[in-house]
Amino acid sequence: MPIVFMKPFSYILVPLLLLTVLVGGGAAQNKPCMRPLLDIFKSAVTATDGEKVVFNASVPLENIDQSSLKYKWRVFAKGKFTDLEGMAATTLDTTGLGGETVIVNVEVSPVEECTQIDSLSLEIRRKGPYTKADDFWWWVQLNQTNLSGYNDPQYEFLLDQLRERLKEVDHRLTVKIEIQRKDPMKQGLIIGYRAKPYDIDLVNDLVFFRAPNLAGFDILIEKP
Q: How many Å apart are CA 177 and CA 141, to the nearest integer?
């Protein structure tokens, strides 16, 4: 009789024990990562088309064998590295990337049973001597997120700053932002010229030779 009563209980107990082991094992495998465990640096704040920029990653932990770490570097959306893969440092060749903003990403493993990921952006200007036009577009790149926020209370103030920055390039240049467009993902940043005769060389240099590629804007020329 005691055996008859123990069998149903044993059928319940065994699955419960198995479930406990599985849950406990899963918890051990999903050990939370300690943060931050990864630092990433670049040798230049900005670059000019054709320059080489060094990126370096490090794991600031004393109790880890640094030689055991593997580094996987990626660049988005364009670009290529010139070094061997797997090392803590890599060099990005910016040739042909003038006007682009690239994202360099590094993945390091294994660290405390975790994969550590970090990234940095790099603005790359077009070739040629540095000019006031480059200063203007550098400011636009830094503020492009805020410039697209036309519902922000500070939006008009930012537009005034945009116009003042452009005056430093040439007081005859004009700029406005077009919000209502066929492409809802991009606003229009429109460059014009207020004097006569129309200086097409000045406008073309600003737009076609100096302007970067902005994710949220189409850079256009206002017809004279």
A: 15
Per-residue burial over 198-221, b = 16 or more CB atoms within 10 Å of its CB, e = otherwise: eeeebbebbbeebbbebeebebee
pLDDT at 81 over 60: yes
Helix (H, G, I), strand (E, B) or coil at 84: coil
Say if residue 180 is exposed, middle or buried (CB neighbours under 10 Å; 0-12, 13-18, 19+). exposed
Gap between the terminal Cα atoms of the chain: 103
d(CA 123, CA 142) in angstroms, rounded, equals 10
Do residues 37 and 60 make contact, with C-beta atoms less than 8 angstroms apart?
Answer: yes
- pLDDT at position 5: 43
What is the C-alpha separation between 59 and 48, in angstroms, rounded? 29
Here the tokens at position 189 are 């940043």
Q: What is the pTM of this model?
A: 0.65
Decide if 117 contacts 59 (C-beta within 8 A).
Answer: no
